[in-house]
Design brief:
The protein is built from one helix and nine strands. By secondary structure, the protein is mostly beta strands.
Length: 176
């Protein structure tokens, strides 16, 4: 009589080996993006406005507790005439007592061919007095489903008197 263990081991090992060799080794894709957000608080191309603050809608975003909503163009280059690939829609709140940092939460809503109808959800602190700031990419939809990642933000242009700025986002994400 033969030992039943000699028959059991191959019955278990063969499916495990088959699964190990056929299962995809690297299901994640990595995408790197460089985008520019054009925040304009004045002018015909106004894309942001204060919605709450200590002095009402006239409060500067530089004051603690001020809440700002924005729907700003997102482009491939720092020039406002460069190709628009989406919109940054969301809010900033000045969350530091001395007024030198924002908390941001917004969606990048893509409308170009490559990522049309996809989104990236951005969240985190923006201590705008620093040259470079890191933020989280916490979610996404469409092409960026199940995304996770981070980005480095730098201020490319800032005109405080006219309340206009161009922010560069260098984003790295992993997704399916």
């Amino acid at each position: 009589m033969s030992n039943p263990i000699f028959f059991t081991i191959p019955l278990i090992a063969i499916p495990i080996l088959y699964w190990a060799y056929t299962y995809p080794k690297n299901k994640y894709k990595q995408t790197n993006l460089v985008l520019y957000v054009h925040d304009n608080h004045t002018g015909d191309d106004k894309s942001a406005m204060t919605i709450a603050g200590k002095d009402g809608p006239t409060t500067s975003i530089m004051h603690f507790g001020t809440l700002l909503a924005h729907d700003a163009p997102v482009t491939l280059g720092p020039d406002p005439r460069s190709k628009e690939v989406g919109r940054a829609q969301g809010m900033y709140i000045n969350s530091q007592l001395d007024g030198k940092a924002l908390y941001m939460i917004f969606s990048i809503m893509f409308n170009d061919e490559d990522y049309k109808n996809s989104t990236l959800e951005i969240q985190g602190a923006d201590p705008f007095v620093l040259k470079e700031r890191e933020f989280s990419v916490v979610s996404g939809t469409g092409y960026f489903r199940f995304v996770r990642g981070y980005g480095i933000m730098t201020t490319e242009f800032l005109d405080i008197q006219n309340k206009r700025g161009i922010i560069k986002l260098n984003i790295t994400v992993r997704h399916f």
